[in-house]
Specification:
Protein name: Tryptophan synthase alpha chain
InterPro entries: Aldolase_TIM, RibuloseP-bd_barrel, Trp_synthase_alpha_AS, Trp_synthase_suA
Number of helices: 12
Catalytic activity: (1S,2R)-1-C-(indol-3-yl)glycerol 3-phosphate + L-serine = D-glyceraldehyde 3-phosphate + L-tryptophan + H2O
Function: The alpha subunit is responsible for the aldol cleavage of indoleglycerol phosphate to indole and glyceraldehyde 3-phosphate.
CATH architecture: Alpha-Beta Barrel
Number of domains: 1
Strand order of the largest sheet: 1-2-3-4-5-6-7-8
Shape: globular
Largest sheet: 8 strands, parallel, barrel
Keywords: Amino-acid biosynthesis, Aromatic amino acid biosynthesis, Lyase, Tryptophan biosynthesis
Length: 261
């Protein structure tokens, strides 16, 4: 059996077909039916889904996703249980895992990448791993055919951004603002500015995340970026008790906004 297509290949093909990319985020285990939520997001038009591995010190994340991690850990969610569930989920879109380097380091880069690949995961984001120290992880991920997704922030100097773009895989995660994840009433000017800086500088799709909170924000970002990553706006609804169908409805609103952009 041929291996699955790489994350970057799937997303680039959709971009070349004229589609704006939608990557919703869900913290694994934050809701009893979180796997059903992933299915609803896929049906609603997600091009890939980012799954957060619960962690006790999620330094990039604001209050909503911190609370989601706390609840998931209290339910007994572990990396092993998440990957086991993903391996049996048979989702129709690529899965990208978001985690912190403590979990990678504890398992070892090669073992961790292999576990992701065995679960069918096709990309990984490790936001607290600096570029200069990421070589062993990137090599292990490449060997396992897991695309290591790297981040570019509004504060990233041009020369450093070029070095990141040269080794990134899957897509480029353009961080929309300086700060932690979370919903904002207004879209930060830096969200479109960072996308403008990166446009045309890489063959990879450029997706803006952090602070993209509404379908209107997504449509605005899509004027300059290849798509968006949306997390806290979805996770908050789960924490407030919305069911998978309600999350699917919200995801369709984001999908429609991107299609109209």
């Amino acid at each position: 059996m041929a291996p699955p297509e790489r994350l970057g290949t799937v997303l680039a093909a959709k971009r070349e077909a004229g589609r704006k990319l939608f990557v919703p985020y869900v913290t694994a285990g934050c809701h009893p039916a979180w796997l059903e939520v992933l299915g609803e997001l896929a049906v609603a038009g997600a091009d890939a889904i980012e799954v957060g591995l619960p962690f006790s010190d999620p330094m990039m994340d604001g209050p909503t996703i911190q609370e989601a991690s706390r609840q998931a850990l209290e339910r007994g969610t572990t990396t092993a249980t998440v990957l086991d569930q993903l391996a049996r989920s048979d989702l129709p879109v690529p899965i990208v895992v978001m985690t912190y380097f403590n979990l990678v380091h504890r398992a070892g880069e090669a073992r961790f990448a292999g576990r992701l690949a065995a679960a069918g995961v096709r990309g990984a984001i490790v936001p607290d791993l600096p570029l200069e120290e990421s070589g062993p992880w990137r090599d292990a991920a490449e060997q396992a055919r897991v695309d290591p997704v790297l981040l570019v922030a509004p504060s990233t100097p041009p020369e450093r951004a070029e070095r990141i773009l040269a080794v990134a895989r899957g897509f480029v995660y353009a961080v929309g603002l300086m700060g932690v994840t979370g919903e904002r009433q207004a879209l930060a000017a830096s969200a479109t500015a960072v996308a403008e800086r990166l446009r045309g500088r890489s063959s990879l799709p450029v997706l803006v995340g952090v602070g993209v909170s509404t379908p209107a924000h997504a449509a605005q970002v899509a004027q300059v970026a290849d798509g968006v990553v949306v997390g806290s706006a979805l996770v908050r609804r789960l924490l407030e008790g919305d069911d998978p169908a309600a999350l699917g409805k919200l995801a369709r609103a984001f999908r429609a906004a991107l299609d109209d952009a």
